[in-house]
Design a protein that fits this description.
The complex is a heterodimer of chains A (204) and B (196). Chain A is mostly beta strands and 204 residues long. Chain A contains two helices and 13 strands; from the N terminus they run H-E-H-E-E-E-E-E-E-E-E-E-E-E-E. Chain B is mainly beta and 196 residues long. Classes of the chains: A mainly beta (204), B mainly beta (196). Chains A and B meet through strand 3 of A and loops of B.
């Protein structure tokens, strides 16, 4: 074999090696979520809550799923393990199976909280980059919040809520009876929302 | 010779295993059953809630069709029965209602009127067991109001939870042949009432 062909083969093998083998972790890696961020997922002790509108309509939500778990991949070729925190809480309406509120917190990539309302409206926040992030649904029928604020405190009528998420949706993506603005409080979850047509619901 | 016999046997098996679907019986709705779904397409029904807030329920569909039931697995014979359905909906409160009555079919239904209401995936029936269903039209007082000649249909989907007043559930529907849904009640005493 001449030296030119040898060089081609060696180069090809080199590129095959560096692209075909995943790089190993340097050591075990654990991507944790701090407790103050975990608190944005409602406490597991909240089994049911009811929202009531100013014109007398009530809707209850029952806790269907709640977990705070550690996920992990299989060890990489070097024997190191990547693990990360993950939380989920899902509440379903007692009046309509199509209505729900779901909290998904995941640290696999950046620490991201996604809140889904009625299987459609989505709020997604990246805690590491401190900005709105795509929910992952990429569906025109699933409006995504375009304003998300994390506030130390929020006054709502006679009540003051600590550590809240206040989110808003663009008018041109929602109908009259979809949520325009919504408030979540640490530990409690959903506490208030307002439809595009102005009707407000408070936590009973 | 062997090939001929094989071909003949295959053709025979083919001919006897494929059959033309054959209608055996047709069951029709009674006049009373047809009148039991008293809705007209595009009607707008006025309701109020317990706090006298008005809202509208629209009749979006009224159909009468013939459903097929096969007389057995892979049977070529089938029966037809008539079914009348009305679909009603409201944007606020969010209600999606389907009212169905089916022709009495002695083999498949031990249910003389086969009236069923589905509201937001909840099933409402005169009783929540699967014995022979008794339809008892009665005069009654519910939520402080007098109703005459009505059926009470119960939320059978959530029947195990209705006593739990920490959460709101649909409780029952008061239904008449004259007006359809007269009242929707909740387990906390609230209601939606038809304004006649």
């Amino acid at each position: 074999m001449n030296s030119r062909n040898r060089l081609i083969i060696i180069t090809a093998l080199f590129f095959l090696f560096i692209t075909g083998c995943d790089r190993c972790l340097e050591m075990d890696e654990y991507r944790a979520i701090s407790q103050d961020i975990k608190n944005y997922v409602p406490d597991s002790s909240i089994k049911v809550f009811t929202m009531i509108s100013s014109d007398g309509y009530e809707e209850s939500f029952i806790l269907e799923t709640w977990f705070d778990t550690l996920e992990a991949f299989e060890p990489d070729p070097c024997g190191n393990v990547l693990s990360w925190d993950r939380m989920n809480a899902m509440y379903r309406s007692t009046l309509d199976n199509d209505n729900n509120v779901e909290f998904r917190l995941d640290a696999l990539n950046d620490i991201t909280l996604t809140i889904g309302i009625n299987y459609k409206q989505q709020i997604a926040w990246n805690f590491e980059e401190q900005k709105i992030t795509p929910s992952g649904y990429d569906n025109d029928d699933y409006p995504e919040a375009n304003v998300v604020q994390l506030l130390d405190e929020y006054q709502l009528g006679d009540s003051t809520y600590a550590n809240v998420i206040l989110a808003s949706f663009p008018d041109d993506e929602i109908s009259s009876y979809q949520i325009k603005q919504v408030l979540f409080a640490s530990h409690s979850g959903l506490v208030w929302y307002k439809y595009k047509n102005g009707i407000e619901f408070h936590r009973k | 010779m062997r090939k001929t016999l094989f071909a003949l046997a295959s053709a025979t098996i083919f001919l006897v295993s494929c059959c033309h679907p054959t209608l055996v019986n047709t069951y029709f709705l009674t006049d009373f059953q047809k009148e039991l779904v008293p809705y007209t397409l595009n009607d707008n029904l006025s309701f109020v809630n317990s706090e006298e807030t008005a809202f509208s329920i629209k009749v979006s569909e009224v159909t009468t069709i013939k459903e097929h039931i096969s007389q057995g697995v892979e049977s070529c014979y089938y029966d037809e029965y008539e079914e009348k359905t009305a679909k009603l909906s409201s944007a606020y409160p969010d209600l999606d209602i389907e009212i169905t009555t089916s022709a009495f079919h002695p083999e498949y239904f031990n249910d003389t009127l086969s009236l069923m209401i589905r509201m937001n995936y909840k099933s409402f029936r005169p009783q929540c067991t699967f014995d022979i269903l008794e339809y008892s039209f009665q005069d009654t007082i519910i939520c402080g109001q007098q109703f005459n000649n009505v059926l009470i249909l119960h939320n059978c989907t959530d029947s195990d939870h209705l006593a739990d007043t920490t959460a709101i559930y649909f409780h029952s529907i008061v239904y008449s042949a004259a007006n359809g849904i007269e009242l929707i009640t909740f387990n906390n005493g609230d209601y939606y009432e038809l304004k006649k």
